[in-house]
Amino acid sequence: MRTIPNFPRHVLVRSGPAAAAERALALGSALERRGHTVTLRPEADGPVPADVVVSDHGEAPLAEEQALRARGAVLACLDGRADRAHACDLLVDATPGRGRADFAGLIPRGARGLFGPRYALPPQDREGGDGLGAERIAAALGDLVAAPPFVPGAVALRPARAADAHRLWIWRNDPVSRAMARSSAPVGWDGHRAWLAARLAERERTRLLVAEADGEPVGSLRLDRIRDGQEAEVTLIVSPLARGLGLGGRLLDALAADAAETGFARCLIATIRADNAAGRRLLERAGFRLAQAGTAWPRYERTVIVPSRSAP
């Protein structure tokens, strides 16, 4: 994370209807003591030319955060639930025991994190904090500049682990992922953990992988065998923070290479909504051919060439 000398900035502190007003007031007062101009308001949009936006709006959609950053604002997010992705430059979570590992793949590469009760704001700071959380956050905001955009490098796949449950759950419940799935209903945490445990225990039938680019989690891929180990159905989810970076085709190529190397399947099957034009183009560019049309979920196939292994 790059830093610059602290200088007066215009900071917009916004909160959702459920957020305690005293949190915004405490942080606003700390920022003003450091010479910043502060505006308190609940909504994100408007004519306020803020350099920095502090979002205490737990229900703000990811697209809204991305739009704020696209307009040039530095974005800081206060999060006490760790149940969604953020397009932020700074993330603050004062929950005891929670740390950066809980947000791997959920905040941008290079984003700064402030974790633990040291950063608690009212009324939480009276339950284990020392009352200086607002001052510490204000100090961090004064030195913050937008992180450079994430440019994915080499892609690698690794087997999913139980420790991946949280980020896989959030990726699956992202609105875009749900809209493209056969079931758009939200997936509960307990049900997801049970599902993941079952998939990890059925490695002969399911191959569940996490994709990383330069060590940053960027998506998940799953192969489910459907016919004597010859065919496997593909499920691909790209992290909400990695969409639009051209990763989809690279992940599918990596999956095909993995299936060939492990011998898990000789044909990859993908079904996709007929109205998902971008997804269908992605499959075609990744070497999938249309095998069944005329349905709400057309079927695509890609043959996997399994390398021959000579006998020793």
Q: State Rg.
A: 22 Å
Strand order of the largest sheet: 7-8-9-10-11-13-12
Please state roughly what percent of the residues sit in beta strands, choosing from under 5%, 5-15%, 15-25%, 25-35%, 35-45% or over 45%. 15-25%
Coarse structural class = alpha/beta
Oligomer: single chain
- Enumerate the spans where pLDDT stays under 50 for 5 or more consecutive residues: 1-5
* Series of secondary-structure elements, N-terminal to C-terminal: EHEEHEEEHEHHHEEEHEHEE
Approximate shape: elongated
Distance between the termini: 52 Å
What is this entry, summarized?
The protein has 312 residues and is of the alpha/beta class. The chain has helices at residues 21-33, 62-70, 133-142, 165-173, 175-180, 189-201, 247-262, 277-285, and strands spanning 10-15, 37-41, 52-56, 74-78, 90-93, 112-115, 155-159, 206-213, 216-227, 231-238, 267-271, 289-292, 299-303.
Write up what this structure looks like:
The structure is a single chain. The chain is an alpha/beta fold and 312 residues long. 27% of the residues lie in helices and 24% in strands. It has eight helices and 13 strands. It has a seven-stranded mixed beta sheet.
Please tag this protein with its features:
about 300 residues, alpha/beta, 7-stranded mixed beta sheet, 6-stranded parallel beta sheet, about 25% strand, elongated
